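Section 3.1 - Work completed
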Amino acid sequence: MSWQTGGMTNEASTVPQRLVAFLPNLRRFAISLCHSRELADDLVQAACERAILAADSFVPDTRFDAWMFRILRNLWIDHLRRVRTAGPQEDLDAARDVAIPSGETASHARMELLEVSVALQSLPHEQREVLVLVCVEELSYRDTAEVLSIPIGTVMSRLARARKNLSELTGISMGQKRSSDTKGGVA
């Protein structure tokens, strides 16, 4: 069941039931925003609390995922404002606790993943937000624009810059083919 079809617009599901199914996506987006698993967990928890308290404001037949991403992003913005007024905070993103089996393939995979992760984190946050929402969370440009409260054209330009910058940072050649040339599986 996909998020775009019955999964996230099913009126029979309650907000708490939808939240349980959506937690991995919400956490992934939170980590991409704040670079800290601990802070991401706090943001996700706060977003879930806010969503449950505001369940009456969720409009049936609309995208639940977009609604939740917006709540989470607003909480992140609130957090950033609090940090600016509170002063510097301690960095909690000191360790990466990803366990993978030993072996040459696993080592190379981990190095590549780390390289892409570092490159992703070095992107400007506006580009990173759009890239994660479109490419990882598979939101449409329109839904991404709605979550971020920006025009669709801005989503497209930020996404293009993010892809270009990410490919340059990781040494991945984008070639001549554009993603829109193969949209829908047809070249």
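Second construct:
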Amino acid sequence: MKQKKVFLKKVIDERQEAELNRLLSGGYWLIFYLLLVVLVIEALFLRRPFQEWAAVWAVFMIAAVYEIWSCFRAGVWTPYEQKPGKKNYIGYSLAGALPAAGVMVCAAIRWGDAPAWHDAALIFLIDFLLYFALFLVIFFAAGGLYNRMRRKREERLDRELMLEEEPEKSGEMGGQGLC
């Protein structure tokens, strides 16, 4: 039998591979959040037109969609919970709506659309409620999709396990005789 040459042979063990994956993950999240900071600075503080920061926005959105899709395919919702629930959806929606509404108020104040504090508070309240509702709908839809994908994955794994166990059971019974 002819052996193939391996150009990239793995030379690290499982512990080193886990450490490498942890480092790569940290680097990914560092870049992800730095892109978010750059977007906020360019859009709000520097008041640059969208055409100047559209490429950064596109990279940020591609990274966000990739991360969400990868987690869905892997069957991971968060590292701390097996499956999402209503309490999670509300918490995630609050965590997303507060900064989103804050950014919108900063933008309104920066661009001079809300000169008085009570106008800024009203903008914050309206934006917060809209973002909260939008995020809640998105999380309910994503959680439903995730649960459906997880259920299908579990059913497929159960079927594969049953198929693997059947030949073992038939082999055990056929080779034994009565004493």
